[in-house]
């Protein structure tokens, strides 16, 4: 018997809460199994893949089986993808700190430039893994598309930042939630917002193609 009214709403929220807690535990275990540095990115990809399927209405999937399958399949590629982002971030940070240490106007301008690049980088990083789990592309194309999305849709960039910030803020206020929702709650926010953005982009692309054929 399907519950309706407030009972049905409460049940759905509780169901989502339990599922998010479960997949977050899988994410933590996957990260630990890979000793952190090798487990974080494949565990994140596996978790986001499950959340994306849930958001698309595929709620009857076997979470553990799918998590294990994606974790193994994407272990090498996701680590390569993730650590390229890490290296880019380190380079930008080192350059920014270098120019900030120089006492001249040229260095000030350069430091401002690298600061802007850093902001773009951080926002693009929020799109990186939702894009990775949603589309099959060459690695270089992911980086190009992330940059394109950030620069062409600043409003959604703000939404993505807020989608990342509010769950983090909640975890800081209630640290006891971290073992159960530390990753999955952020994942839900990023997947939901990025899916809306991807749908808009796909719609525009289809419109442009149809217009070009007329």
Quick recap of the structure?
The chain has 214 residues and is an all-alpha fold. It contains 9 helices and no strands. Helix 2 (40-55) packs across helix 3 (63-73), helix 5 (105-134) packs across helix 6 and helix 5 (105-134) crosses helix 9 (184-213).
Q: Could you explain how this protein is built, in words?
A:
- With 214 residues, the protein is mostly helical.
- The protein has helices at 5-33, 40-55, 63-73, 75-100, 105-134, 139-152, 154-173, 178-181, 184-213.
- Helix 5 packs across helix 7.
- The longest helix has 30 residues, at 105-134.
- The protein starts with a helix and ends with a helix.
- The mean pLDDT is 90.
Query: Which percent bin holds the helix content?
Result: over 70%
Number of strands: 0
Give me the number of helical elements: 9
Q: Biggest β-sheet: count, sense, barrel?
A: none
As a percent range, the share of strand residues is: under 5%
User: Residue-averaged pLDDT, rounded?
Assistant: 90
How far is the N terminus from the C terminus?
51 Å
Order of helices and strands: HHHHHHHHH
Task: Report Rg.
Answer: 20 Å
Principal-axis shape: globular
- Helix-and-strand structural type: mainly alpha
Which terms would index this structure?
214 residues, mainly alpha, globular
Helices and strands in order, then pairings?
Layout: H1 5-33, H2 40-55, H3 63-73, H4 75-100, H5 105-134, H6 139-152, H7 154-173, H8 178-181, H9 184-213
Helix pairs in contact: 1-2, 2-3, 2-4, 2-5, 2-9, 4-5, 5-6, 5-7, 5-9, 7-9
């Amino acid at each position: 018997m399907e519950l309706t009214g407030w009972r049905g709403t409460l049940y759905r929220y509780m169901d989502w809460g339990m599922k998010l807690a479960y997949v977050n535990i899988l994410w933590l275990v996957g990260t630990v199994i890979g000793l952190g540095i090798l487990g974080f990115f494949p565990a994140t990809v596996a978790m986001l893949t499950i959340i994306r399927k849930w958001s698309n209405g595929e709620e009857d999937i076997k979470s553990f089986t799918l998590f294990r399958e994606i974790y193994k399949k994407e272990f090498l590629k996701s680590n390569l993808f993730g650590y390229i982002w890490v290296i880019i971030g380190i380079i930008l940070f080192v350059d920014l700190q270098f120019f900030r240490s120089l006492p001249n106007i040229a260095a000030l301008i350069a430091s401002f430039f690298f600061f802007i690049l850093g902001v773009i980088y951080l926002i693009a990083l929020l799109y990186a893994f939702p894009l990775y789990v949603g589309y099959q592309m060459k690695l270089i194309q992911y980086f190009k598309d992330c940059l394109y999305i950030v620069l062409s849709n600043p409003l959604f960039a703000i939404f993505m930042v807020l989608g990342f910030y509010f769950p983090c803020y909640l975890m800081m206020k209630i640290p006891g939630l971290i073992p159960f929702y530390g990753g999955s709650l952020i994942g839900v926010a990023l997947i939901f917002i990025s899916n809306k953005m991807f749908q808009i982009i796909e719609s525009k692309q289809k419109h442009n193609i149809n217009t070009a054929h007329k």
